[in-house]
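Weekly sync, protein design subgroup
Attendees: M.S., D.O., the rotation student, P.L. (late)

Item 1: inverse folding check
M.S. brought a backbone from last month's batch and wanted to see whether the design step gives back something sensible before we order anything. D.O. pointed out we never logged the input encoding, so this time it goes straight into the notes. Structure tokens as presented (210 positions):
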């Protein structure tokens, strides 16, 4: 498995999304992280729309101290996206992907392959599948894409099971020839910017993996 860092062609194509390098957990590996922009604070009306309630209800929650908030210099209420997401989780509301701050994509592929794909903000690209297993519990990716060449010697059933334990609604996509132990993986013949964009349009599984 090639662990060397390659030139970041995607940064030249998308200068506004410049990745950062982190040291991987495995020996000599590197991890490329495409940082998110900080999300703008939400207004009271936006929070009400997300929760399907009235503005007055949000004001009542604020008065009761149930939802963190702050005020602008003009005394208007504002809410941090992560505080609203946590309130929704605690209260049993489904948290939309754009508010959850979850990693949209975890890609296991050569750096040279990842550099050509135009990865979205919040994505993580790495070469070693063991690093993917370490990062899944904390980043809870919506989609994990693994390229066959990076998975030599990996127990595919155990790999998929470990990802499911970390995030049970995550889609796991295999790129390359269909493997013998590929049950539960979505199959993709080849990966390019177009096929990746299509994958990310449907972010959550609509049925359990058998």
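Designed sequence read out in the meeting:
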């Amino acid at each position: 498995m090639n662990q060397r860092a390659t030139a970041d062609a995607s940064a030249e194509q998308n200068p506004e999304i410049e990745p950062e390098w982190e040291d991987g957990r495995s020996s000599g590996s590197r991890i490329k992280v495409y940082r998110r922009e900080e999300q703008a604070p939400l207004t009271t009306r936006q929070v009400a729309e997300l929760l399907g309630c009235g503005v007055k209800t949000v004001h009542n929650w604020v008065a009761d101290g149930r939802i963190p908030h702050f005020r602008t210099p003009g005394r208007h209420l504002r809410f941090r996206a992560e505080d609203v997401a946590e309130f929704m989780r605690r209260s049993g509301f489904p948290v939309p992907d754009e508010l959850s701050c979850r990693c949209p994509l975890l890609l296991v592929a050569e750096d040279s392959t990842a550099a050509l794909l135009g990865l979205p903000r919040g994505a993580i690209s790495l070469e070693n599948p063991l690093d993917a297993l370490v990062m899944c519990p904390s980043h809870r990716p919506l989609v994990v894409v693994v390229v066959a060449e990076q998975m030599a010697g990996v127990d595919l059933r155990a790999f998929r099971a470990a990802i499911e334990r970390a995030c049970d609604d995550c889609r796991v996509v295999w790129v390359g020839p269909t493997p013998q132990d590929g049950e539960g993986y979505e199959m993709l013949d080849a990966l390019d910017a177009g096929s990746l964009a299509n994958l990310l349009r449907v972010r959550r599984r609509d049925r359990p993996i058998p």
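Discussion: Confidence is low (pLDDT under 50) at residues 1-16, 204-210. Residues 184 and 190 are 18 Å apart (CA to CA).
Action: P.L. to compare against the previous round before Friday.
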